[in-house]
Specification:
- The complex is a heterodimer of chains A (195) and B (169).
- By secondary structure, chain A is mostly helical.
- Chain A has 8 helices and no strands.
- Chain A is globular and about 55 Å long.
- Chain B is an all-alpha fold and 169 residues long.
- In chain B, helix 6 packs antiparallel against helix 7.
- Chain B has one domain.
- Chain B is built from 9 helices and no strands.
- Classes of the chains: A mainly alpha (195), B mainly alpha (169).
- At the A-B interface, helix 1, helix 2, helix 5, helix 6 and helix 7 of A face helix 1, helix 2, helix 6, helix 7 and helix 8 of B.
Chain lengths: 195, 169
């Protein structure tokens, strides 16, 4: 699947650019490469900072306390994760950071959570149910403070930049709830056809 | 407020760790090592995905597609001005931010279109980037129904942001 998405993006991008007579195609290709390097260069300090801080939280037992507090809720959403698994701590940290609009800080936890979920899935190359649920929570996004949007609104001269907060909270929670229902539904449909 | 949020979180974690008398500096170094390792493992994936996404968005196909769809969206009362954002949001976080900035500049952040676009950006996330990054970083090849559910989740968020902003303001 990833094979198709990836190749499709590139092929459509190239064919459409040629069709439009865009002569900058080679530059665009290189620009993509540059952007990728920029992103990873920006990601390294974030990963180091947050995984370092997280390791302190883990070793001091704080992570365990937080995940115990959240575990009832997480157990309900992720029925396949055994109690006390490390993944719970990373998933809760990812969700908390996303809620606060700190997407950059959320990514390292999300990546660690996925690694733990892979261990639970016997390292197979097929997505597990928990992985997909985690993905759905991330893409439908549970937001309390949309940090980036508010700063963009300020930049564009809004009189009341944070007035969209209530609407964002309602929309993001409601859509995540519906998306989680859909996720369950798809899981049952899939299981029926693929066992 | 969010300026103090991250430092506050860091301070709380450190104060707690001090009270527990653990080897804080050593723990931090372990985490940093893990951070470097994870970043380097991620590099090929990020490189591949960003390359594909950049090529697609630079070809402008998404903006032009949305202009063809305008008549249908007018009938549905969906503000067509936000359509490029709605289409790009699941694909690329940085390009959708650029489009949001464009919309806010053109129609004003306090207009209905500006508000809808703000909520749309704030209440969804980049499905394809997350699938590409998270799944390929751990070597998932068969993604099952995840893309479908992820895109449906985006669609729901997009429709809800139009409905909720229209009824709240």
């Amino acid at each position: 699947m990833i094979n198709y998405i990836w190749s499709l993006f590139i092929v459509i991008g190239i064919i459409y650019s040629i069709f439009k007579g865009d002569y900058n195609l080679t530059n665009n290709l290189l620009a993509g490469g540059n952007k990728a390097v920029d992103i990873i260069i920006n990601l390294i300090p974030l990963m180091c900072l947050w995984l370092g801080i997280m390791k302190i939280a883990e070793d001091s037992g704080l992570l365990k306390i937080i995940s115990q507090k959240l575990s009832k809720f997480i157990k309900y959403i992720f029925p396949e994760i055994p109690e006390g698994n490390e993944a719970i701590g990373y998933i809760s940290s990812n969700i908390v950071m996303n809620m606060l609009g700190l997407g950059n800080a959320a990514t390292p936890f999300g990546l660690k959570a996925m690694m733990e979920l892979k261990k639970l899935n016997q390292n197979r190359d097929i997505a597990s149910r928990s992985m997909i649920t985690f993905l759905v929570i991330n893409t439908s996004s549970v937001t309390i403070i949309p940090t980036t949007v508010i700063s963009l609104r300020v930049l564009n001269g809004s009189n009341n930049a944070s007035e969209i907060m209530t609407a964002t909270i309602i929309t993001s929670f409601l859509s995540t709830f519906i998306a989680l229902l859909l996720d369950r539904l798809f899981y049952y449909i899939w299981r029926k056809h693929h066992v | 407020m969010s300026n103090y949020l991250i430092p506050a979180i860091v301070a709380i974690i450190l104060i707690y760790a001090i009270s527990k008398k653990i080897d804080i500096f050593d723990s931090f170094l372990h985490g940093v090592k893990e951070g470097i390792k994870t970043s380097i493992n991620l590099f090929p994936t990020i490189f591949a995905m960003i390359l594909a996404i950049t090529l697609l968005t630079q070809s402008n196909i998404i903006n032009e597609l949305s202009s063809y769809l305008k008549p249908i969206f007018d009938k549905l009362n969906f503000p067509i001005e936000t359509l490029p954002l709605a289409i790009l949001r699941p694909i690329s976080g940085s390009s959708s931010l650029a489009i949001l900035n464009d919309i806010l500049g053109k129609y004003g952040p306090d207009s209905l279109i500006g508000r809808i676009a703000s909520v749309m950006q704030g209440s969804t996330d980049t499905t394809l980037y997350i699938i590409g990054l998270y799944f390929s970083s751990i070597g998932i090849k068969r993604i099952r129904y995840s893309l479908l559910v992820g895109l449906l989740a985006d669609l729901i968020s997009i429709i809800l942001s139009v409905l909720i902003v229209s009824s709240l303001f």
